[in-house]
Amino acid sequence: MAREVLTLKDIKFLNESAKVARGVPADSSVPANKDEYFDRLLKYIPAEVVACYIFVMGLIQKLPAGSPEIKVIHWIVFVLFCVITFFYLWKPLNVRKIQQLTISIVAFIVWVFALGGPFALYAWYNPIYGEILLPIYTLVAAIWAAENN
Questions:
Q1: Which of 11, 41, 60, 135 could disulfide-link to 142, CB 3.0 to 4.6 Å?
Q2: Residue 77 sits in which domain range?
Q3: Would the CA dihedral through 71, 76, 79, 85 be positive or negative?
Q4: What confidence tens digit (pLDDT) does each residue in 91-122 have?
Q5: Closest C-alpha among 87, 90, 4, 91 to residue 39
Q6: Number of folded domains in the chain?
Q7: Contacts 24+ apart (CB under 8 A), 79-86
Q8: CB-based contact 116:99 (threshold 8 Å)
Q9: Alpha carbon separation from 24 to 12, 31, 101 (Å, rounded)
Q10: How far lies 91's CA from each of 45, 62, 67, 87, 101, in Å?
């Protein structure tokens, strides 16, 4: 399964490109399906990156409690994984839609917020915020069909 979200506009473009390349008359069509809600739901969530982040956070938990560098390490890892999310989707998974990349990076941030991440190191953080935000963002983000920019 390709990771980039396919819309009707994408399929039309692909069909037209294929016709031009093969010399097929413009009135014939190549069947293809656009991604529906559940397809987008799966494609927008960078599950592999979230899993790696959880693994790394498990390693960080082994640092002595109260270490002064804990906050810095948490934030460095968080920012690093935000960047990794972009490049992981861009390079190996060939996602070129800026809208989809943005939705996926925000999805990663929401997942980290729900897990606690560096946010849990502050007194204002309450896990219920993430527990509420995660399902709402996940369901609402998939309504949007990312287009080419």
A1: 41
A2: 35-141
A3: negative
A4: 999 999 999 999 999 999 999 999 999 999 99
A5: 4
A6: 1
A7: 81/49, 81/52, 81/53, 81/56, 81/108, 81/112, 82/108, 82/109, 84/49, 84/52, 85/46, 85/49
A8: no
A9: 14, 14, 34
A10: 16, 32, 36, 6, 12
Establish if 107 belongs to a structural domain: yes
For residue 145, give every residue at least 6 positions away whose Cβ sits within 8 Å of its Cβ, in sequence order, or none.
5, 7, 34, 35, 40
The answer as to whether 4 is a domain residue is no
In this structure, is residue 122 part of a structural domain?
yes
Residue 143 contacts residue 4 (beta carbons within 8 Å): no
Q: Which amino acid is at 11?
A: I
Kindly state whether residue 30 falls inside one of the protein's structural domains: no
Residue with tokens 């390490």: 73
